[in-house]
Design goal:
By secondary structure, this protein is mostly helical. The chain has 5 helices and no strands.
Length: about 130
């Protein structure tokens, strides 16, 4: 079994932290059933991932894109824009109409005098005290 070291992979992926991220992502892919591109030689998934990176059977750019895609929660899809504008044009400022709701739909508020408010507060019962606090 050939030993894989960071020095074998560092010329393919220059940043050691990126190398760890890419190799761990590839090892997870292998664990989930992805096909490996080299002979396993009784190696574990992280070693196989490092050997794939060192032997350049996988592109580090492709691995990085797959890692980013796996971490995205919302994927934007590029769709061609239609020739027709999606938003209708707004009327000019001079032609703008002030729209108000009809009188029967207007929001009404109940008015309460100070005496009624105090009487309501006096009628409230305080919560019972418990020893849980």
């Amino acid at each position: 079994m050939a030993r894989v070291t960071v020095e074998d992979c560092i010329d393919k992926v220059e940043n050691r932290f990126d190398l760890v991220l890419l190799a761990s992502h590839r090892a997870r892919q292998i664990s989930q059933g992805e096909q490996i591109t080299i002979d396993r030689d009784n190696d574990k998934n992280p070693v196989v991932a490092l050997r794939e990176i060192a032997d350049e059977t996988l592109s580090p750019g492709d691995l990085k894109e797959a890692l980013i895609h796996s971490l995205q929660k919302h994927v934007e899809v590029d769709e061609p824009e239609a020739d027709v504008p999606a938003i209708p044009e707004q009327p000019a400022a001079q032609e703008a109409v002030d729209v108000q709701p009809p009188e029967e739909e207007a929001t009404s508020f109940d008015r309460m005098s100070e005496e009624e408010l105090l009487a309501g507060i006096e009628g409230l019962v305080p919560p019972e005290k418990s020893d849980d606090f």
